[in-house]
Amino acid sequence: MTRVRPMDRSRPSRTLGTVGFAVAASLLGSIPAAAQLRGSLPDGEVAVTDALPPRAGFRLKPTEGAPTDSGVRRVIQTFAGWTLICDEAKRTRVCNVSQTILDHDGAFAFSWSLAATSGGEPVFVVRAPVMDFPAHTVTVAVESTETVIRLDRCDARLCLGFLPLDAALVKGIKNRGSAAIRYRIAEGARPVTFTTSLDGLKAAMASLR
């Protein structure tokens, strides 16, 4: 089944606060809201399995960087193919869970991170280099459901759009499944296709206790 996701003009909030986090947690299972999830994003024993790597030629980007503000303690954890970054300062913890894919040349190919709209609804912020493709679209296939999203905010390097955390994604995250990504970088160009894993995302959220 293929769905075309209409363009969403609502901006993600800078922080996925208690409302947005509670919504995401309720979809994935009971996870205490001990931390906030930053919008540059993202029950029982969680079994960590081997992550399904991106298709040959594509690889996960390692996490790097340090906090820019003084007095901030940054903790970086990896959960299979996902990275959880938490900045702690003055008893406040703000976290970001994301995944970035590089192509065989080491160039940026795709990223998505968990965030929330200004109304508190959980979404994935999706980024891909589709600025030269007129439709600016990316297809994400999870659990036999294809969703076509338009990345309508572009600069010279990449475009950005939003993918709501729908039933197919929730099921894929719970099952530690995979996502097939497809897009074109230009009109008439061959599609860029690869598969990446959702394994680790549920564990990352569950670690925020």
Give a brief outline of the structure:
The protein has 209 residues and is mainly beta. It has helices at 18-28, 167-174, 201-206; strands at residues 2-5, 15-16, 36-38, 59-60, 73-79, 82-89, 92-102, 108-116, 122-128, 137-142, 145-150, 153-154, 159-164, 178-183, 192-197.
Describe this structure in words.
With 209 residues, the protein is mainly beta. It has a single domain (2-63, 71-206), classed as Sandwich (Immunoglobulin-like), CATH 2.60.40.1880. Helix content is 12%, strand content 41%. It contains three helices and 15 strands. It has helices at 18-28, 167-174, 201-206, and strands at 2-5, 15-16, 36-38, 59-60, 73-79, 82-89, 92-102, 108-116, 122-128, 137-142, 145-150, 153-154, 159-164, 178-183, 192-197. The strands form two sheets. Strands 2, 3, 4, 5, 6, 7, 8, 9, 12 and 13 form a ten-stranded mixed beta sheet that branches. Strands 1-11-10-14-15 form a five-stranded mixed beta sheet, with helices on one face. The radius of gyration is 16 Å and the shape is globular.
Highlighted features:
209 residues; mainly beta; Immunoglobulin-like; 10-stranded mixed sheet; 5-stranded mixed sheet; 3 helices
Protein topology:
Elements: E1 2-5, E2 15-16, H1 18-28, E3 36-38, E4 59-60, E5 73-79, E6 82-89, E7 92-102, E8 108-116, E9 122-128, E10 137-142, E11 145-150, E12 153-154, E13 159-164, H2 167-174, E14 178-183, E15 192-197, H3 201-206
Parallel strand pairs: 1-11, 3-7
Antiparallel strand pairs: 2-3, 4-7, 5-6, 6-7, 7-8, 8-9, 9-13, 10-11, 10-14, 12-13, 14-15
